[in-house]
Amino acid sequence: MTTTKNIAVLYGGTSAEREVSLNSGKAIANGLVQSGYHVELIDTKSVPLSVLADKNIDCVFIALHGRGGEDGCLQGALEYMGLNYTGSGVLGSALCMDKVRTKQVLLAQGLPTAPFKVIQQAQFDMADCEAVLAELGGVAMVKPAKEGSSIGMAKVTNAKALENALVEAFGFDDRVLVEAWIHGPEYTVSILGDTPLPAIHMETPREFYDYEAKYQSNSTLYHCPSGLPEQDEQALQILAKQAFDAVDAQGWGRVDVMRNEQGDWQVLEVNTVPGMTETSLVPKAAQAAGIGFSELVSRIAESAGLNK
């Protein structure tokens, strides 16, 4: 492929997911160079966004995970500057970064998601932990509302554990999602354009698919094909696309889903800028669909501007 397009890959940043973003940005840049693009890597931690105004940039490839890159702030700034960018727009990015808002939209659209409680730091009495846990079935997952990569998350099985997990989660966010524990396997479906890619089934010996299982462990298994019967695979892909559309996600992304003991799907969240190293989940799914890494990042880059 020969092209004269100039692409700025924004990566790094200052969020809790900085290290993951550094790896994603480098991999994306390498893939774009292999496809013939002119690429400039820009670490937004040390380089102000204003430098883009002085560059001949055709589009911006967003490889920033978490706050400041995935939450709509950057997308709004780029739109103000008149620059095309990859992925979801302002609304979809902001919604998906907020796990609470995402679940509220899913419920409003009639899509399946586990029962949950929203805990506000300033309003919550830790003496109520036992009642909250009982309401959610005795076992729950604690999640900061606006963090990714499982940062600040914990499984809890008693009131004291919930109290400790809330204290930890409040270090990342003053609003925390406490979600009923789902007993069952976890899957993810990547979306490229309007097309769901083959599902991936993740298995880990750890309590859940946490940061270590995602980025540090050698014991995590990824099954693609997922091992689901064809009818179930199709149903999962349809649900993932419905969830993706419900929160106004666009361009590309990933929808995380679990299956409970009754065999029902439960949508966890939608990721608008998921990890993008060559061994990340979206590239694994793309490979299963016959799409190599360079082609994948090229297709995402070519879709830039469709989010306006």
TrEMBL record:
Task: Quote the InterPro entries the UniProt record gives.
Answer: ATP-grasp, ATP_grasp_subdomain_1, D-Ala_lig_Van_CS, D_ala_D_ala, Dala_Dala_lig_C, Dala_Dala_lig_N, PreATP-grasp_dom_sf
EC numbers listed for it are 6.3.2.4
GO cellular component terms, alphabetically, are: cytosol
Q: Where is the signal peptide?
A: none
Asked whether the UniProt record includes Manganese among its keywords, one would answer yes
Q: Which UniProt keywords apply?
A: ATP-binding, Cell shape, Cell wall biogenesis/degradation, Cytoplasm, Ligase, Magnesium, Manganese, Metal-binding, Nucleotide-binding, Peptidoglycan synthesis
GO molecular function terms here?
Answer: ATP binding; D-alanine-D-alanine ligase activity; metal ion binding
Key word Ribonucleoprotein present: no
Entry note: cofactor: Binds 2 magnesium or manganese ions per subunit.
Q: Which residues bind Mg(2+) 2?
A: 269, 271
Catalytic activity line of the entry: 2 D-alanine + ATP = D-alanyl-D-alanine + ADP + phosphate + H(+)
Q: Which purpose does this protein serve, as stated in its record?
A: Cell wall formation.
Q: Can you tell me which family this protein belongs to?
A: Belongs to the D-alanine--D-alanine ligase family.
Name the UniProt record assigns to this protein: D-alanine--D-alanine ligase
Origin species: Thalassotalea euphylliae
